[in-house]
Fold:
Amino acid sequence: MTSTLASLPKMPKNADQTTAKNATRYSSTCAALKVKPNSRIAAKEEQLGYEHVDLSSNYIGGGGFQAVTEILAENDRMETLDASDNGLNNEAVVFFARAVAKHQTLKTIDFSRNPLSLPAGLALLDLVHKNKRIAEIRLEDTHIDEPVLRRIKRALNLNRIHTNQAAAHPQSANTSTPFEKVKNEYNARAVQRKGKLAVAKDEIE
Structure:
């Protein structure tokens, strides 16, 4: 992660007006949810519009994170989010997972060192299935059961395969002939089968 509350990068030159509005929106959203704003985040609210958002070790809490989620869900530049060690609860993570299900740029999430359990794990599994762009979710030192963690890992592996496949064949969906379409579909299924076998082998090992 490239930005922290202690040392934040300069705003991108092409930053839009949404980022500038975060300073008032965070506080007003906290008020609407009847939660106390986190003083460290309130002092650096503009970071909620960055590509790499680092909220780690701020003890935002469940209610506070829901307020942050309202803004993060509209950050169309965010690629990574570190919300580790924040005292997040299941309800907050379920809310987040639903909010970013169609996010266009988010790839990496860190929820490690939070007291999360089955509801959060299932919500994140559903998120990974719905949003193929998500390639990594860190969940170390949580209470999510190992079988659920394995399912999340398997889904993430398939998402990475999907991303690599799309990058290798960026125009596959727009081929000009029926033959090329059939050929690309066949190759895509072959890659997917290979990926599933690799995931299964990894789980067995």
Remarks:
- The radius of gyration is 19 Å.
- The chain is about 50% helix and 5% strand.
- The longest strand covers residues 52-54.
- The CA atoms of residues 57 and 85 lie 5 Å apart.
